[in-house]
Amino acid sequence: MPATIEAMLTKRRPTAEYPLLGQTILVIEDSRFASEALRLMCLRSGARIRRADSLRAAARHLATYRPSIAVIDLGLPDGSGLSLISEMAAGRPPVTVILATSGDDTNADIALEAGAHGFLPKPVTSIAGFQAAVLDHLPKEAHPKGPRPLTEDIVLPDPLALRDDLAQRQRSCAKAMTRKPWNIWHSFSPDWGEAPGTWCFRRPPRACWWVFQAGRARRGNSPG
Question: How does pLDDT run across 185-208, given as a tens digit for each residue?
Fold first, then answer.
């Protein structure tokens, strides 16, 4: 029965209101904040979403089904998203639409060279922009019929997701500073982007220094 329901959902035709209806989108993203933004966009677009937070988790998904669309963060905790992009692009059958995402716009060219069809710069907030990035690479028969009104709506994920992300980066930062403070660049993913109204780690060394000094102060050590 579940397989039958799955097949019925997959065959649903897109509409002007839900232009991605019938599509299954696999989001590979370790940031809860960014993942939540994409989840909201998928729901507003009519697509079904599956999520993975690492290359290993993505491999488990791909062992059981083939998504029609994949959105892949380039900076994942267990490796680069570029390798997964190349794998999906070379697969048989290949994933119909592969979108790379990163907070560093300079990564766009290398993502396209690896096999991505498009690039989503972080933060991804525009629903219309997200829909256009996908539809630009879907075959015409998968597009909704007739004119499609463009929405100016943006998504604003739960701030608690951002807080969880920052807490995780803080833990990673403090741990790295204890081991090798001169190698702190590698403790942060470069793919954060900057969400409206929120602070993010666009300058990792300085952010890590603040966290490290705060930890020393709590332990009663002089900041130095």
Answer: 444 444 444 443 333 434 344 444
